[in-house]
């Protein structure tokens, strides 16, 4: 394989990685810009409702300490450690790195034995070693987040009943940690343990919220912080929050049901050409051998992969909804 072929293959792999990162990385920049414009509108508006909402946002922002630091923002290794912690499996960085290295080596050896091309095996091995463990960790995080949200509204209802019966907030948090199973009980148990060793309740809640990265739990922390600053009936406030979270969950399920057909079509259309290519290559490698030796077929294959990746990227954006 000559230098031109290596450059083309490397460029195609890098382009696929860039498209995958763009498809699944972070919130929409346009929506973030729209939120900033909305904040400016609140700041300079003469409307009473806008001024009240602006004061509420200032109170929320002011509750964070000056040394506030988002979990995982220090370095990539720290961010990876936070991701592994969110799975709830107790995996360490060394285990993750060894697993990634092992997966990459196995895939690279298999590809090399099937094609005899060392650069191709190395490129696909690097892609598999970096992508497969990352995908699996993401699936575990999503699964744990779903389990957390499924029980979180019930935990808030338990808090409301405890508060209405006369128990203090810290005691009701302890009751939730003991009575609610799954991730909710585990996280509340960690909050109670931090409070027992001298941390304030707000700091303990904020640390858990930063580590989890779940919007529903952030709502809970904000509600408690505002109530402690402004006063009022905490039980009634948490009851309203529980109702909002249940309606939010219902909206998510409704959107999921309405978009399930489009997502299934996108998955099938996007993955079918690659699956068919791999199956034919596995059954009869000589039939597709030209795609690894002939310059014209290499260029055509990379062009097809690029266009298919663009299509998959567009379909992923079309079926992705933010609530």
Quick structural overview:
This protein is an all-alpha fold and about 325 residues long. It has helices at about 5-25, 30-45, 50-60, 75-85, 95-115, 120-165, 170-180, 185-195, 200-210, 215-230, 235-285, 295-320. Helix 5 (about 95-115) packs antiparallel against helix 6 (about 120-165).
Topology of this structure?
Blueprint: H1 3-24, H2 29-44, H3 48-62, H4 76-86, H5 93-115, H6 118-164, H7 169-179, H8 183-196, H9 201-212, H10 215-230, H11 234-283, H12 295-318
Please characterize this protein's 3D structure:
This protein has a domain at 147-249: Receptor-associated Protein (Up-down Bundle), CATH 1.20.81. 81% of the residues lie in helices and 0% in strands. The protein has 12 helices and no strands.
Which tags fit this structure?
81% helix; mainly alpha; Receptor-associated Protein
- Tell me, rounded to a whole number, the average pLDDT: 77
Helical residue percent band: over 70%
Specify the number of helices.
Answer: 12
CATH A-level architecture of one domain: Up-down Bundle
> Quick one: biggest sheet?
none
Strand tally is 0
Morphology call: elongated
**How many whole angstroms does the radius of gyration measure?**
25 Å
CATH class of one domain: Mainly Alpha
Runs in which pLDDT lies below 50 for 5 or more consecutive residues are: 64-69
Task: Identify the CATH homologous superfamily of one domain.
Answer: Type II secretion system (T2SS), domain F
What amount of the residues lies in strands? under 5%
Based on secondary structure, the structural category is mainly alpha
N-end to C-end Cα span: 49 Å
In CATH terms, what is the fold-level topology of one domain?
Receptor-associated Protein
Please trace the helix and strand order, writing H or E for each element: HHHHHHHHHHHH
């Amino acid at each position: 394989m000559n230098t031109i072929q290596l450059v083309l293959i490397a460029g195609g792999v890098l382009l696929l990685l860039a498209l995958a990162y763009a498809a699944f990385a972070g919130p929409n920049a346009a929506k973030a810009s729209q939120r900033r414009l909305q904040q400016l509108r609140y700041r300079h508006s003469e409307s009473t409702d806008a001024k009240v909402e602006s004061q509420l946002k200032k109170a929320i922002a002011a509750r964070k300490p000056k040394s506030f630091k988002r979990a995982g923002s220090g370095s990539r290794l720290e961010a990876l450690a936070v991701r592994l912690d969110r799975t709830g499996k107790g995996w360490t960085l060394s285990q993750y790195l060894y697993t990634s290295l092992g997966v990459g080596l196995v895939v690279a050896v298999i590809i090399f034995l099937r094609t005899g091309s060392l650069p191709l095996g190395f490129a696909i091995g690097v892609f598999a070693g970096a992508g497969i463990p990352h995908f699996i960790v993401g699936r575990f995080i999503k699964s744990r987040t779903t389990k957390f949200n499924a029980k979180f509204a019930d935990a808030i209802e338990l808090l409301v009943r405890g508060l209405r019966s006369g128990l203090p907030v810290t005691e009701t948090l302890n009751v939730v940690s003991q009575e609610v199973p799954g991730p909710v009980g585990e996280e509340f148990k960690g909050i109670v343990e931090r409070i027992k060793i001298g941390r304030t309740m707000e700091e303990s809640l904020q640390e858990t919220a930063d580590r989890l990265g779940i919007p529903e739990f952030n709502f809970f922390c904000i509600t408690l912080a505002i109530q402690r600053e402004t006063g009022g009936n905490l039980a009634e406030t948490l009851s309203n929050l529980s109702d909002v979270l249940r309606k939010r969950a219902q909206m998510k399920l409704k959107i999921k049901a309405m978009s399930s057909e489009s997502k299934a079509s996108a998955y099938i259309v996007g993955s079918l050409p690659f699956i068919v290519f791999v199956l034919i290559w596995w059954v009869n490698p000589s039939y597709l051998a030209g795609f690894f030796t002939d310059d014209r077929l290499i260029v055509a294959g990379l062009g097809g992969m690029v266009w298919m990746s663009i299509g998959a990227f567009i379909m992923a954006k079309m079926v992705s909804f933010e609530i």
